[in-house]
Design brief:
This protein has about 450 residues and is mostly helical. It has helices spanning about 5-10, 15-45, 50-85, 90-115, 115-120, 130-140, 145-160, 165-185, 190-215, 235-265, 270-285, 290-305, 310-345, 355-365, 370-385, 390-415, 415-445.
């Protein structure tokens, strides 16, 4: 094996410190990325409701690309981390398999989306904003392989405890995007298409940096040996048994978001999409602490499991639940008070200022589910750390299947955005509790629940 790096030493050390050391860089990266998404929406909002709605309609498809890359990254992460914990040198081969799988998946998705983009968007609630959606969507999904690679590289970096490097990739990309957005949108007068090109170019820089680390500088713990590459059925199965369910979870969430967009149109065909998609951007930012701790759970618990130290694994999981739920409670209370201020970022323009009240109501209703998500994210990650990707997918499927009937009933029977938001929040609460319960049941059944370090 390659000489141990500081990241690997952290990964295999004190589990609580490892969770913190892994989660903080992930949180910083996600905050910067979400801030970038918000700033992106702020610049786009200056173009009017149509452009703002276009970013919301396209987001689920962009999320699918991120989801495929993230799924491959998570699948590779648990496989690599487990091998690092067991001192198994085949972790390098796992990384090479993940690289090639990402390349093929990204190219295939880009082709599919480009060929069917117009009918896909028309069926997703683009409505009168179809031209804006096409302008924004063509560059974004056409360069999908870049998006997939970004997520995959972040996953394999976290697998070896190099969370700071994964953070660096996202921060550099997001920072460049923040600079390029106003230039491409307004200075070059590309409009909403300029926002998409800024995103693609920025993510492309992140991929170039990762390629430099792995193939030129070669200073990572895990290498990506492509010379004489052959697919390895056993390693691919180990990646994909978690990677496919993890990808499907994000794809499922994207499809549910698309369906929810159509339900929103029933309630408010004129402004509903802008209210819902913009409010959800803010919620994404508020969910970052729980999501980041969840990301940390995968490599830390997988490495402990690979080393046969179940007590250390359970200490990391318990600590992640407490930290994630506690932070989420604080953010919920903050949102209940500060929601009117938070939405001003998106309603500064006279074209969208009338949406302020509805966006505030959306946030105050939906933020109630945050503490429950604080329990759900680490638990879903625990499934993945143990190679139980299907169980995590089933729990997510139940949560998303709950959302649609609850939101549809609220939209058709009550007919208000507030009622629909209550249905949305209810589904997230119930779904998160199901994921937590399923994880605890799995651990109890395996005799791990009461193990102490």
């Amino acid at each position: 094996m390659t000489e141990e790096t500081e990241g690997v030493k952290t990964l295999l050390g004190d589990p609580k410190k490892a969770i913190i050391a892994m989660a903080i860089p992930v949180a910083i990266a996600n905050i910067v990325q979400s801030t970038n998404n918000i700033i992106d929406a702020v610049w786009v909002a200056g173009l009017g409701t149509g452009a703002l709605a276009a970013t919301g309609v396209l987001f689920p498809y962009f999320f699918i690309l991120l989801g495929i890359g993230n799924g491959i990254g998570v699948g590779a992460s648990q496989s690599i981390a487990r091998r690092i914990g067991a001192n198994d040198p085949s972790s390098h081969k796992v990384a090479a398999q993940a690289f090639v799988i990402s390349l093929l998946a990204g190219l295939a998705l880009s082709l599919v989306f480009l060929l069917g983009l117009e009918p896909i968007l028309a069926a997703s609630g683009a409505g009168e904003y179809l031209s804006e959606c096409m302008a924004y969507g063509a560059p974004l999904v056409g360069c999908g392989v870049i998006t997939v690679f970004c997520s995959m590289f972040s996953g394999i970096l976290r697998a070896e405890g190099a969370a700071k490097r994964a953070m660096y990739l996202q921060v550099v990309g997001a920072g460049l995007n923040i600079v390029l957005d106003p230039i491409f949108i307004y200075v070059l007068d590309l409009g909403v298409a300029g926002a998409a090109w800024a995103t693609v170019i920025s993510m492309g820089l992140s991929v170039v940096i990762a390629v430099y680390w792995y193939f030129l500088k070669k200073d990572t713990f895990v290498r990506i040996p492509l010379k004489g590459f052959r697919f390895d059925a056993e390693l691919d199965k180990d990646i994909l048994k978690v990677g496919i369910p993890a990808s499907l979870e994000m794809v499922l969430m994207s499809l549910t978001a698309m369906a929810t967009n159509l339900i929103v149109l029933i309630v408010d065909a004129e402004n509903g999409i802008a209210i819902f998609t913009t409010g959800w951007r803010i919620l994404d930012l508020l969910m970052i602490p729980a999501m980041s701790i969840g990301f940390a759970v995968v490599p830390v618990c997988a490495a402990a499991f690979g080393a046969g130290n179940i007590g250390r694994m359970m200490t990391a999981y318990r600590y992640s639940l407490k930290a994630s739920c506690g932070l989420s409670i604080v953010l919920m209370l903050f949102t209940l008070v500060a929601a009117p201020l938070m939405v001003t970022l998106f309603t500064y323009n006279d074209n969208v200022s009338h949406l302020s009240g509805d966006m505030t109501a959306f946030l105050r209703v939906c933020c109630v589910f945050l503490p429950f998500m604080g329990l759900g994210f680490p638990s879903a990650s625990m499934f993945q750390a143990l190679g139980k990707g299907v169980q995590s997918l089933v729990a997510t499927l139940i949560m998303n299947l709950l959302r649609l009937p609850l939101c549809y009933t609220a939209a058709t029977v009550v007919g208000t955005m507030t009622a629909m938001c209550i249905g949305l929040a209810t589904s997230e609460v119930v779904g998160s509790l199901i994921i937590l319960g399923g994880c605890l049941f799995m651990l109890r059944r395996a005799g791990m629940l009461h193990c102490r370090e």
